[in-house]
Amino acid sequence: MIQAPVVLASPELYIAGLRERVDVRTAGPRIGSLWRKLTMAGEIEGQVPNGLSYGASIYASQTEFDYLAGVPLKNGFTALPEGYTLLEVPAQTWLVFEHRGHMGSMPGTIHNIWAEWFPSQTEWRPAPQSTVSPMLLEVYDEERFDPKQGSGIVELWVAADKAATAAP
Questions:
Q1: Helix-strand-coil percent breakdown of the chain, rounded to 5?
Q2: Hey, how many other C-beta atoms are within 10 angstroms of the C-beta on 86?
Q3: pLDDT at res. 165
Q4: Alpha-carbon distance 97 to 146, whole Å?
Q5: CB 141 within 8 A of CB 52
Q6: String of DSSP letters for 94-107
């Protein structure tokens, strides 16, 4: 059962990281590889030292999405290491869900958000899919998630809009 999310109005975010197009059926190992590369690279110049990292899923097609494993970057900083991409996430409303447990079960949590939570309520709907802005942000906090164990609490930010209400 998915718990009700927290509504968050977020300012614009700047995320620098490693980005790759992945197939929805085989994404896990490719995403894991991006995180290993990012971790081995260490802190980058311009990184905001807040203990957060992000996994951004950006719609590409019905069978593919771009995934960016990254870190928060100071506003306006553009001198990135070779191979890094800057993702500018616009200010928007997010529904913040929590995944608790091992990474291996996170796809099930994400599936339940779309297949169970959204259809069961009328106040919110997912924001329209975009090929430039993430539909989902995984937010990792070093205080709540252990990357060595692949376990802990991960916030799942889903871009959302208020659903249109029916006229009386």
A1: 20, 45, 35
A2: 16
A3: 62
A4: 18
A5: yes
A6: EEEEEEEEEGGGHH
Distances (CA, A) of 144 to 83, 95, 122, 141, 153: 28, 19, 31, 5, 5
CB 119 within 8 A of CB 111: no
pTM, two decimal places: 0.92
State how far the Cα of 60 lies from the Cα of 129, in Å rounded to an integer: 9
Half-sphere exposure of 43 (CA within 13 A, CB side): 9
Using one digit for the tens of pLDDT, what is the confidence trace for 117-149? 999 989 999 999 888 889 999 999 999 999 889
Which residues lie across from 155 on neighbouring strands? 98, 139
The superfamily CATH assigns to domain 6-152 is Regulatory factor, effector binding domain (3.20.80.10)
